[in-house]
Amino acid sequence: MNIIRRIRHRLFRWQQALLYRFIKIKRIGPDLAEFNIDTQLPIIYAMQTPSFAEQLVIDREVSELGWGSPKQRGLEKQLNARHFFGIYRRSRLLFRKTTTPIVDRPLLAHVDWLKQHPEQDIQIVPIRVFWGRAPEKEKSFLRIWLQNSGALGGRLVTLMAILFNGRNTFVHISKPLSLRELMDDNASTEVVARKVARVLRVHNRKVTTSVLGPDLSHRRTLVHNLPNKPMVLAAIEEEVQRTGISKAKAQKKALSYADEIASNISYTNVRFLDVLLTWVWNKLYDGITIHNIEPLKDVSKDNEIVYVPCHRSHIDYLLLSYVLYHKGLQMPQIAAGINLNMPIVGSILRRGGAFFMRRTFRDNKLYAAVFDEYLHSMFTQGYSTEYFVEGGRSRTGRTLNPKAGMLAMTLRSYLRDSRKPIIFMPVYTGYEKVFEANSYLGELRGKKKEKESLLGILSSLRAFKRSFGKVNVTFGEPICLTDFLNQQQPDWREQDYQSCDFRPSWAPKVVDRLAHQVVTHINRAASVNPINLIALAILAAPRQAMEASLLVKQMEAYRELLRSLPYSDIVALPDGNGEDWLAHGEALAVVSRNQHPMGDLIQTDERQAVTLTYYRNNVLHLMALPSLLACLFINNQRYTRDDVTRIVLQLYPYLQAELFLHWSESELAECIPEWLRYLVAQGYLLENEKGFHAPPASSNHYAFLSGMANNVMQTLERYYLTLSLLKQGGSGQLTSSELEEKSTLLAQRLSLLYGINSPEFFDKALFRTLIQKLLQQQHASLDEQQRLQFDQALNPMIDTLEAVLDGALRQSIVRSLQS
Predict the structure, then answer these.
(1) Higher-confidence residue: 5 or 176?
(2) How far apart are alpha carbons 14 and 757 in whole angstroms?
(3) What is the DSSP string of 683-707?
């Protein structure tokens, strides 16, 4: 018997080695560090269906994890049955995609063994082996069947799956379950085993949905069904009445819209993009670091996921899908602008999961109805989706004011069918060097935005010769739409939405609040990289130049500040030290070194300085509160704790509106004393019985305080500029748009006079946000002619800004107003 056992064991290892010549494994699923596997207790493995090939894979993978090989003789003796069991029996008919739930004999034996050993426990580890993975079309029958070969045929189908998809094999290992905790001592062995199998089948369905997503309908079927949906039929009737065209022509138009919109995801294309993007990332970037993905893995099993990333670059589209694919999560259907539906590129993106939308379709009710219905079909059928709430890419590096259109359509779909919960997943992408930096720089200098084209993409290939540093991808705190609606509109489930076409009167305000919560959560998930730290320090220095040693110290001080009082518990900070970060910045050519006998100087030319404002703005919100505190003291002001709290609370609503800061007023009142204590402990502020004041101007502590203040000082200067224009014009004299235009022109003038290299200093959108906030705070109002009215309530804020800002700049603003 020993000889036979040894022969079987060697044969098993030989077959395993042979198999691994044909396959390439990638482990996916929860973080293995959180499993807390006890190797002293028996471990059994739950598979979808009994499969010898999968046993070969599972044995190798768990052995490498240090859990011991299930085929080891010592482990086999622990229990009376095999360590592998299935929860389904696959069809014996070739290519028949049916399975039968079973209670496998080894599971019955394990339950019986545990009943006989009440002091013991058995750990059940659910494992799925995917021979390739991607949602597919029904017509692409071979690969979609083979990637889920456990549900099909027998050994022949498994062999074909290995040959076709083996180089793209994923092993999903789930957290272990305690068989003891699932047992009922009063129940029979059969009842307990059925219960365990049922729990594992539910878990298996969730894993399948999370990893593969639902089977994609044949695209042609989906497209042809959209014009027959009730809302689209109503829009067709309205189009016929409005334009006088025939119903057949209106239906044809609806069909063409559906064809223009719908994605056409292809497994072959996904694999092509996987290979291509792996090569691209290796050429462009030094690495991609992923943060906080575990909460996403948890919620993705039971919920419809809507990814809402920040939008910094066209790379965002590809990067998130690439990360999700390699982390074993369902690839999303991505909302892309119709401008990207260009020859060749558009087809590749569509087959990678992109569906296309026009920039605006407010006046095209038929198109809106088709798009609404397409989006609704995505949500209700369980596809994860992705769209950018900012609308377009940020040219300044700041998170843009959200556009609520896609969120409104998501809410409308949810009011129609709320059976599957929707989770919004904010995603922050932090680049050390943005691929489109040159084009952004030109646009900020007034150059017209170039239209996307195939020729433009080909010309960008020259950038592959340069390094773009590292990328950080951080998944934020999930936002549950159900919970949000329960807070904002507690009776939303009881209302009838048929009469209002699922557009209730409360929806616009709720969607607006949701949009701001999404971008606020994006900012909470920010990551800080060395280029951000270089930008924070050097842009605040005179002439954007510093001694190398001082720059190193200030970068390390910023990192320590953000570590000691973190903006949120998921903000990622860089490893290493200031010397490493500076060397990295020089390698990426974001700064230049000027060697000098008395100590090297780090400098920026005009192009570098303007580019660095982008990376400073990425993380400016993290520094907003300490920088605002520093602004109060930089001109040798002395304030008591109460004075500081009053001024910060007075200015905070405007910074919050601009930077999407997450503190409420009550939370802010608690944070201020903490920050003051930290600044005093570090020597950046001094405290005595009269209050707080700045250290001597000749000290390094003052230099850091001054640099920190400059990160927000320009924002306060913009506020003073606008309020001065408003006050000079007089109450009831200027409209919002007129004040916005005048403020922009004056800011442009001042930027030329004072060499301000920050494009956002004269960003019209930021002046618009300030004016809107003045109206919300009731510091101004609109009369019947839509002109701005104000009274003495505006004076306290003006007085505060006059006390904080540099006198020379204030006088320059006053002179400009008088000229």
Answers:
(1) 176
(2) 67
(3) TSSEEETTEEEPPPTTSHHHHHHHH
Cβ atoms within 10 A of the Cβ of 780, count? 21
Query: Is residue 620 within 8 Å of residue 399, measured between CB atoms?
Result: no
Q: What is the spatial distance between Cα 345 and Cα 336, in angstroms, rounded to a whole number?
A: 12
Any idea what DSSP says for residue 29? S
CA distance 761 to 744: 8
CB 289 within 8 A of CB 472: yes
pLDDT for 206 beyond 60 = yes
Q: What is the pLDDT of residues 394-422, one digit of tens each?
A: 888 899 999 999 999 999 999 999 988 99
In which region does residue 66 sit, left (phi positive, over 0), alpha (psi from -120 to 50) or beta (all else)? Answer: left
3-class SS of residue 639: strand
3 state SS of 187 = coil
Distances in whole angstroms, Cα of residue 343 to Cα of each of 104, 148, 339, 349, 693: 53, 33, 11, 11, 62
**Cα(708)–Cα(801) distance, integer angstroms:** 17
**Sign of the torsion formed by the C-alpha atoms of 619, 620, 626 and 630:** positive
- What is each CA distance from 313 to 77, 395, 590, 663, in whole angstroms? 57, 9, 18, 28
Report helix, strand or coil for 322.
helix
**Tokens in use for 432?**
């050390």
Query: pTM score, two decimals?
Result: 0.85
| pLDDT in the model for residue 359 | 83
What pLDDT digit, counting tens, does each position of 676-734 carry? Answer: 999 999 999 999 988 999 999 889 899 999 999 999 999 999 999 999 999 988 988 99
Residues whose CB falls within 8 Å of the CB of residue 695, separated by 6 or more in sequence, listed in order: 683, 684, 685, 686, 701, 702, 705
Given a contact cutoff of 8 angstroms between Cβ atoms, the answer to whether 556 and 536 are in contact is: no
Q: What angle do CA 236, 239, 241 make, to 5 degrees?
A: 115
